[in-house]
Design a protein that fits this description.
- The protein is α+β, with helices and mostly antiparallel strands.
- It has 2 domains: 344 residues, Glycosyltransferase (Alpha/alpha barrel), CATH 1.50.10; 88 residues, Macroglobulin (MG2) domain (Immunoglobulin-like, Sandwich), CATH 2.60.40.
- It has 14 helices and 18 strands.
- It has a 5-stranded mixed sheet with strand order 12-18-17-14-15, with no helix packed on it. Strands 11-13-16 form a 3-stranded antiparallel sheet, with no helix packed on it.
- β1 and β2 form a beta hairpin.
- α7 packs parallel to α9.
- The N and C termini lie far apart (61 Å).
Length: 481
């Protein structure tokens, strides 16, 4: 196996496509789910393997990959419908079931991300732009449109420099496509991977347009991600949950949804790591130390076999893990495992994947060089405190900005003593809010923001500190609006 792998990586960079991009497009269109489904479900199937056009062009530098991508995107855009507010979307049944339809935030991001990847190639090449510039501008405008659409529908939520998308509340009946049905009770913050995918839309729009609005939006999305990282100090690695409460609509006395690493689908975190890598390469939020911690986690998940690589989940609770292949840019072991797993894949798309890996990813040795940043002054790394938090798998304050009351909640991995403190913004202890022995699971308290001794209301910016054995987490807050 080792000898075969070395041969695999040692082939010349001069490579020509023996695969027909037209045939690949036909194969994508031949997926019966792409032909019969609508809405978010359609976008997941339509996006599957459709980054092959980007990888094909980057590998072979043949314009037919762009031409076939445009044909495929024309088909996708042709499947969009206008909703009552005039914005377009891939409208269809909600994945949760029922006869209420709508578009979805992640559905838009699934397909627009593919288009922006091709647009970014076109706008950087004068010859390509002279031929395909109108299509590139169409995709860019569609990207701008979906960001604007979900903002106007009230689905963007931010506090303290952190941001996340909320599930939409506006839907339609198929029989009345021109009228909204408003379902306020359905609102909850999106699963993290969905906000992350919109973050990548923003990164690409920023790189194409240079508009700092999109960069700042991405900073808020990925800063939130970084703020919820559960840091395992002894192994110098990160774990993060599939979903966590962030907005007021997310909490009762406990979170409205489950908080954990996904127990069945390791692909979610693999996709999220690719978002973090995209963010790193664009100079946003993550630094070299963060990337090393992701690498450490994925190698911890691995069974240490090259002959039959297997992966457990990032928290070790299930066997639902996979290789985080996007880390191949940085680490030789991840790269080697990626090559081994790619060798096992079959089909035309797999050939393109292998050629892309061999001739683009492996063109240079692993390093922490950022792909899209030439000057370190363009790198934005917000100050987000990271402490050992092995036994505190969630720590939230909802809302973080409040006048009267807030909910302070933790999820604990074992029984023990939980202490909750109010700290000043500059790191001085102000008051102990809570001190009790608690059981593993959720512990939530309601706090009025008042001094226990005087009854006076605190005012200004502070931090809530959670202490549980050797684990510690902090959340910024503001009392008084």
């Amino acid at each position: 196996m080792k000898k075969r792998f070395i041969l695999f990586l040692s082939l010349s960079f001069s490579v020509f496509s023996q695969i027909s991009p037209e045939q690949i497009r036909q194969n994508l269109l031949g997926n019966p789910n792409v032909q019969r489904l609508k809405g978010e479900d359609f976008t997941w199937h339509a996006a599957y393997n459709a980054d092959v056009f980007y990888k094909g062009y980057m590998t072979y530098k043949e314009e037919k990959w762009i031409e076939e991508a445009i044909k495929y995107f024309d088909f996708l855009i042709g499947k969009m419908d206008k909703e009552p507010d005039g914005y377009r979307g891939w409208v269809g049944p909600r994945l949760e079931g029922g006869n209420i339809w709508g578009s979805a935030i992640v559905g838009d991001a699934n397909l627009v991300n593919l288009m922006l990847a091709i647009a970014e190639i076109i706008v950087k090449d004068k010859n390509l732009y002279s031929k395909y510039g109108k299509k590139a501008e169409e995709y860019i405008n569609l990207g701008k449109e979906i960001i604007e659409k979900w903002d106007k529908r009230g689905c963007w939520y931010e506090q303290f420099g952190y941001g996340k998308y909320l599930v939409q509340t506006k839907f339609i009946l198929p029989s009345k496509p021109d009228e909204w049905i408003t379902m306020e009770d359905w609102q909850i913050s999106e699963n993290l991977n969905k906000s992350g995918k919109m973050g990548v839309v923003c990164l690409k729009l920023y790189r194409i347009l240079g508009d700092k609005f999109y960069r700042d939006r991405a900073v808020k999305i990925f800063s939130y991600y970084k703020s919820i990282m559960r840091y395992i100090e002894k192994e110098d690695r990160y774990i993060w949950n599939f979903w966590e409460p962030f907005a007021e609509c997310d909490m009762t006395s406990i979170p409205k949804s489950w908080v954990d690493v996904h127990p069945e689908r390791g692909g979610y975190q693999a996709a999220e790591v690719s978002f973090f890598v995209e963010s790193y390469h664009t100079g946003v939020v993550f630094d070299e130390k963060d990337i090393k911690r992701f690498i450490n986690t994925n190698l911890w998940m691995w069974n240490k076999s090259y002959e039959n690589p297997q992966f457990k989940s990032a928290n070790g609770k299930t066997n639902a893990g996979t290789l985080w292949s996007s880390l191949s840019d940085f680490d030789e072991t991840i790269r080697k495992l990626n090559g081994i797993l790619l060798e096992k894949q079959k089909g035309n798309v797999a050939i393109v994947e292998k050629d892309y890996f061999q001739n683009i990813v492996c063109k240079e040795p692993p390093s922490f060089k950022r792909k899209y940043i030439k000057d370190d002054k363009d790198v934005i790394i917000p100050e987000i405190p990271i402490y050992n938090s092995e036994d505190i798998s969630m720590a939230v304050v909802i809302p973080m900005i409040f006048d009267n009351w807030t909910k302070i909640s933790a999820k604990l991995e074992k029984d023990g003593k939980l202490e909750i403190y109010l700290y000043s913004k500059d790191g001085k202890m102000v008051e102990k809010i809570f001190d009790e022995n608690v059981k593993a699971g959720y512990k939530t308290i309601r706090w009025d923001g008042k001094n226990k001794q005087t009854g006076e209301k605190y005012k200004g910016e502070y931090k809530i500190r959670f202490v549980f054995g050797n684990s510690l987490r902090e959340v910024p807050i503001k009392i008084g609006g």
